[in-house]
Amino acid sequence: MELCRTCGMWWGRHALRRVADVHPCIPQAIGEHPPWPMPTKEATGPVGVAELGDDSDSDDEPLAPSQDPPDFRPGEQLTRLGSLAMTPLRSLKILASADADLASAIVRKALSYETRQHHVRHLHKVARQVRWMESNNPDDKRLSQPLLPWLIHWLKGRGRRKKWKWSTQSAEMGSIQAAFRYLPTYVPGAPTWLLKDDVAWQLACRTCRNRARAEKTDQALPATVDQVHKACKFAIDVLRRPDIAALLGLTWITYGRASALAQAKREDIVLSKDPDGETVAAITMMRGKSNKLGQDPHTVTNPLGCFAPFVVEYLENITEPDQWIVFAPTRTERKKLLGAMNDALRNANGIQELETRSLRRGSLQLMAKAGATIEVLLVCSGHSSVRSLKRYLNFGRVMSAEQRKAGKMAGQLVTLPSPALQSC
Questions:
Q1: What is the pLDDT of residues 85-140, one digit of tens each?
Q2: Separation of alpha carbons 3 and 13, rounded Å
Q3: Please, what are the domains in the chain?
Q4: What are the start-end ranges of the H helices in 318-356?
Q5: Where is the composition biased (Acidic residues) (predicted)?
Q6: Under DSSP, is residue 46 helix (H, G, I), strand (E, B) or coil?
Q7: Could you tell me the pTM of the whole model?
Q8: Distance in angstroms between the alpha carbons of the first and the last residue of the chain
Q9: Is there a contact between 363 and 252 (Cβ–Cβ < 8 Å)?
């Protein structure tokens, strides 16, 4: 590895030989020679998945021996961000070649399609902004300065122009951070940039999170049992969609997410009878948002009650164990399915604020009002932390059993002692 005194970056010997005629840190050569080693000489643009050759024999070749870490001058500290923190802003034009489908399927499937598209949109916006700055003023000093101070300033300016809430600003910074972290999966040969290792970036993110906690959040209106039952009947009588009715009922009794239940198979649901003859459903959440976040599958067992007519007959008609309970093989089909659930909830009750998220929020709040403890609610929802659960309980305004107990004890704080005790 050799340190370039012009751009402050460490370059491998192979990269220097490849661009020996024009040094890569010279501004006019950035577009042709990106500021990191490329996998091939021709890979300056988007590379398709087919070109990568997922099943090629080259995967079995032995890896090259690792090089010794570079020597740093006295006073310099090696961080995971390293010399990339000094990468000039001008070099970010290469982000215009970002492609959400660049990496092989086994790599990109770790993130949802929507997440990958969101990351790529951010990278393209950064590249367009840098190109606009260069076209208007090629001598702009900011183009030769480190990228992180400009990136923070640019995001702050976008938030002001678009009048973002602090929660949106925090989410955008988190998405940008993730996009640069997974940059090798979007741009060929790119390094991983861990923006969180920069102190200024850490403090900016902390400011956004702290301000966001003080804002009033926009949350879905919690649904009630009567509203969900009306929506199920509406799906049967008006929409002629028994699958929508069954999905509404299952989502409600499992405190679940509609998108997770839409990915359930028949073998994930076990129907049985309790001693009183009531139908009980045990549903195991095997797929969905919680599972993608690394949480283990969890099972919710509840009686069907008034939702049995919409669920039992529909599930009994599904004979194959590995068959999906609803037909939603693609992202587009799942979006249509969730849209039909929204239509049933809103049209059946005449309340446009109802949506699929209202099911999970309403069922958990009803359990809390019935006297469930935080521990019980965590088992019901499958959350890994109390912090996430409290958002569904309107940040404690819907009290759990512990809060009610604490409220009764708090009477001591507002009760004056009796005269007899005062005399003592």
A1: 667 787 888 888 889 988 888 888 888 888 899 999 999 999 998 888 888 888 88
A2: 11
A3: 2-48+76-213 (no CATH), 225-407 (1.10.443.10)
A4: 331-349
A5: 52-62
A6: coil
A7: 0.66
A8: 82
A9: yes
